[in-house]
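Fold it.
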Amino acid sequence: MAGKAMSREEVNGREYLTKQYGDGSNLNARLRLHQRFSTNTYGWHRWVFDQFDLPERCRILELGCGTGALWLENLNRIPEGWEIILSDFSEGMVKQAEEDLGRGRHFEFEVVDAQSTPLPLETESFDAVIANHMLYHLSDRPAALSEVRRILKPGGHFYSAANGARHVIEIIELIRKFDPVAAVRWERGGRVGEPFSLENGEVQLSRWFGEVTMRRYEDGLAVTEVGPLVEYINSGWMDLEGERLREFERFVAREMESSGGVIRISKDSGIFVSVRDSEPDL
């Protein structure tokens, strides 16, 4: 694929996920852009950690942990009594998280596919489950959410992060200006119709949890370097190679120059905090 934007179906497909998340390289490319050019100096992972309302002693599961960045950025804040299982469907991701965080003290690491049902985990065995920007990938979210409810203790919390309709919408416009035909595959403003977003997540979660609240994180990007932005876009939005990639780099450089040396990109992210009631499993 020398020069096309990927459709939403491709981005949520199993082949794409396996290629994207076989290891941490693509995810790290995206994280680097946010770490370097976010306008909110209080980072996303620190903010997410602030949302946790958990006892000093508890058992936590993260589904789709990726490289473990949430915990790497909050190591000094974790209470002694927290037991944390980091899981991902990708062995490569789990391996990197384990290398970076190390076993012992707080962490265990497991290869777990959130789309498999039932999950290989005991009923009512966790005080909290975390899904950080991964529910939109799941083809059968009702089954997955049912399993999350099953493994949570009554009163347990489910923290699920998602993006909203305006999230990085300027990237769609950048792709559209570079290649209108390719950009049509994404459809402008189509994030409203994504399978799990800030706009539709509460309705989905309310079927399984008695209390659901959504909290937004205020942020944006002010990108002043061409290379990191091109790397970000090509790590997940496009799949360009050779001369087509170099052409895109030159295009982004011209756009940045014409914008006074900075490309500003909207961010629209947040987290749903859901509480499992004491009713029997559905």
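The CA atoms of residues 154 and 278 lie 5 Å apart.
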